[in-house]
Amino acid sequence: MAQQLFSPSHLSHSSTSNLRHISLMSHNGLLLLVALLLLLGVSLPWIASPLFIFPKKSSSYSYSSLPSNWRDYSLAQAAKFVAKEGTVIVCTVSYPFLPFLNNWLISVSRQKHQDRVLVIAEDYATLYLVNKKWPGHAVLIPPALDSQTAHKFGSRGFFKFTSRRPRHLLQLLELGYNVMYNDVDMVWLQDPFQYLEGSHDAYFTDDMTKIKPLNHSHDLPPPDRNGVTYICSCMIFLRPTSGAEILMKKWIEELQDGTKAYEGNDQPAFNWALNKTASQVDLYLLSQAAFPTGGLYFKNETWVRETKGKHVIVHNNYIIGYENKMKRFHDFGLWLVDDHASESPLGKLE
User: Fold this and answer.
1) 133-185 residue pLDDT tens
2) Which N-terminal stretch is annotated as signal sequence (predicted)?
3) pLDDT tens digits, residue range 77-100?
4) What residues have CB less than 8 Å from 38, skipping those under 6 apart?
5) 335 with 312, same domain?
6) Alpha-carbon distance 109 to 106, whole Å?
């Protein structure tokens, strides 16, 4: 068939336009075509032509709409700027935690989800630094804390700002966004969104070190003999549903009612909220193998070896102290900042 299409007799009957078309395939014709494409590539962006062949940064909110003073930047503005496909990834950070934020961001960037990240800054130093390096990706919801308030993981200052978390999440839900919350002492090894099966209201992880079967139930675990569950409040995914809003409101209520009992620690309050709203909220317990607690991942070598390749987000908990957490990340090859800072949207922090 090819021989017939390009036989001399076929070419002898070709029109003048066909001959011109074939001439474009000559050496000079190809050079002309390349030059034309280069010209289009350079000139069309300047005239805002819809034919512009290079991709533009996709954002539902333009850089020109960002405020000149970051103190005026609202949560609604920030969420609109960063949201992709209706989803925002949120963390809350104070200035001393910036190295951990950068480490977490590198791992998020490796999964191509960094553009969805919104940093809720707890002090103005964090707000200005993040937005200087990465405009539009940090917002502060007053009141601001002192920049050194939460230096120690587990300290009273640390709990002071984590206890504000459910209010931030509720606001985002009320704005209509899916919300993933992460503590920044986490590292992503895979894309977690592929594990958010179904359309449940709230997804969360178990903080227990007892090994579950790989096909374990995704229901809220039953309370122990003391009526307590051990769900982690450090990795949560919420859909903008009435059920998720009920859960957040109950969490806020539990924190307000149990201030002395919790000493500001939001996790026990989150567990009580889960148990008290279980009949009203569609809950989903994420895979233990995919989202292991630090007490399992860092302390059970046999389990880690047996579940190799299944880990998605690793949480560096079950250890106290800023320096201790950093050292453990170093020891397990999960402290990425030293050699891979260029992969973070913030770059290298001085």
Assistant:
1) 999 999 999 988 765 554 454 555 555 555 689 999 999 999 999 999 999 99
2) none
3) 999 999 999 999 999 999 999 999
4) none
5) yes
6) 5
Q: Are residues 124 and 36 in the same domain?
A: no
Q: Which of 281, 276, 283, 278 is nearest to 258 (CA)?
A: 276
Asked if residue 100 and residue 69 are part of one domain, the reply reads yes
Of 322, 343, 328, residue with least CA distance to 157? 322
Asked whether residue 206 is domain-assigned, the answer is yes
Beta strands in 20-106 (DSSP E): 87-93
Cα 248 from Cα 270, distance rounded (Å) = 9
User: Strands 231-238 and 138-140: what pairing?
Assistant: unpaired
Torsion of CA 325, 327, 332, 335, to 10 degrees: 80
- CB of 87 closer than 8 Å to CB of 177: yes
Enumerate the β-bridge partners of residue 187.
314
3-state percent helix, strand, coil for the chain, nearest multiple of 5? 45, 10, 40
Same domain, 194 and 234: yes
Regarding whether 232 and 121 lie in a shared domain, the answer is yes
Range of the domain at 45: 15-56
Cite the DSSP H helix spans in 175-241: none
How far are the Cα atoms of 89, 131, 144 from residue 150, in angstroms, in the given order? 21, 20, 12
Find the CATH number of the domain harbouring 224: 3.90.550.10
Per the structure, the count of domains in the chain is: 2
> What are the backbone dihedrals phi and psi of residue 178, each rounded to the nearest 5 degrees, phi first?
-70, 140
Q: Tell me the CA end-to-end span of the chain in Å, nearest whole number.
A: 67
Residues of the chain with pLDDT > 90: what percent? 69
Q: How far apart are CA 164 and CA 162, in angstroms?
A: 5
What's this model's pTM, rounded to 2 decimal places?
Answer: 0.79
Considering the domain boundaries, does residue 5 fall inside one? no
Scanning the structure block, which residue is given the tokens 């919801």? 141
The answer to whether residues 172 and 79 touch, using CB atoms and an 8 Å cutoff, is yes
Cβ neighbours of 153 (radius 10 Å) = 21
pLDDT in tens, 207-228: 999 999 999 999 999 998 888 8
With H, G, I as helix, E, B as strand and everything else as coil, classify residue 202. Answer: strand
CA distance 103 to 88: 19
Residue 147 belongs to some domain of the structure: yes
